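Bug report

Summary: structure tokens for PilD-dependent protein PddA differ between web form and batch submission.
Environment: batch mode, default settings.
Steps: 1) Submit the sequence below via batch. 2) Compare with the web form result.

Sequence submitted:
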Amino acid sequence: MVGRKNRLRQRSRLAGVSCVGRHRQGFTLIELLVVLSIIALLLTLAVPKYIHSVDVAKEAVLSENLHLVRETIDKFYGDKGRYPESLEELVSEKYLRSLPYDPITASTQTWTIIAPTQTNDSPHAKGKVYDLKSGAPGSTLDGKPFADL
């Protein structure tokens, strides 16, 4: 009887399992499914808030880019006495480092350029870029069209 127990102990040591109690080598399928379902439940709560935060950040970047480019156009007009012919002229004249980025369309080429109008205050307005608007379709989370920012 003693010899049999010794042989069982030697075999179990080789197999990585003790005679006294078996050590589990992993999780059961049920345990894995429970953990995965809890993770999925938590993700359904977190993902919508994350997506909303990304949309709010894109709108803030768009608004700031428009504000900075409009200020730059005004500075160009103050220095040169005319409006720029294109956005690229603002870059080539070192008023901007690069063309502004529209985060909604993920492009620098979708801007809508507004030309200056001939008014009584400025009958000889020269140049082609008076204002800049986003060319993105749709509206902000507040319901305001992107083109009206």
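Above is the batch result. After comparison, the two runs are identical; trailing whitespace caused the diff. The CA atoms of residues 25 and 148 lie 62 Å apart. The chain has a mean pLDDT of 85.
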